[in-house]
Amino acid sequence: MPAVTKKTTKTTAKPVTKKTAAPQVLPPAPVAPVATSAEIRFRNNNLLISPRKLRLLANVVKTLVPAEALLRLKFTNSKSARILVKSIQSAVNDATRNHGLLESSLRFRSIRVDEGQKIKRMDKSHGSRFNRGVIIKRHSRLEIMLTGQKQ
Fold first, then answer.
1. For residues 131 and 29, is the Cβ–Cβ distance under 8 A?
2. Which of 59-68, 76-85, 96-105, 125-134 has the lowest mean pLDDT?
3. Which of 25, 44, 51, 121 fits 140 for a cystine, CB–CB 3.0-4.6 Å?
4. How far is CA 94 from the centre of its chain?
5. How far apart are the first and last CA of the chain?
6. Side-chain half-sphere of 91: how many Cα atoms within 13 Å?
7. In this structure, are residues 67 and 60 in contact, taking their beta carbons and an 8 Å threshold?
């Protein structure tokens, strides 16, 4: 009896691939311009008003939008309101004209009122033994920071 040899065949399984249509190439989508935000800082030094008086209105105004703040301050009868109106108008004009920000997107980031220089002079009619008659004229420094979207 002849030797029987087993013939083994290796079968490699080929992966089954589905035939699909060629991928469609879409035209590029129009890219909308990304609105970038910017921050503007406006400083006004040596205002002849005490910081305490200026802070009273600045703390109320900084929660509002600049356009609404200007509207409310124009009907407030005080020196600090007149100073804030001029400063906020200058800051808004600077942001829109020089930095190209949209006026409708402007918001206050912060309004800071710091103490400026003090002018002191002696006058005996304004004090006696302890105060020595010193008259102190206080000044303020105002810093307004605005944020907004560029055009």
1. no
2. 125-134
3. 51
4. 14
5. 97
6. 30
7. no
Q: Which residues contact 45 (CB under 8 A, 6 or more apart)?
A: 116, 141
Contact 126, 135 (CB under 8 A): yes
Question: Whats the size of the chain, residue-wise?
Answer: 151
Tokens, residue 32: 């909308």
Contacts of 105 (CB under 8 A, 6+ apart): 148, 149
pTM, whole model, 2 decimals? 0.72
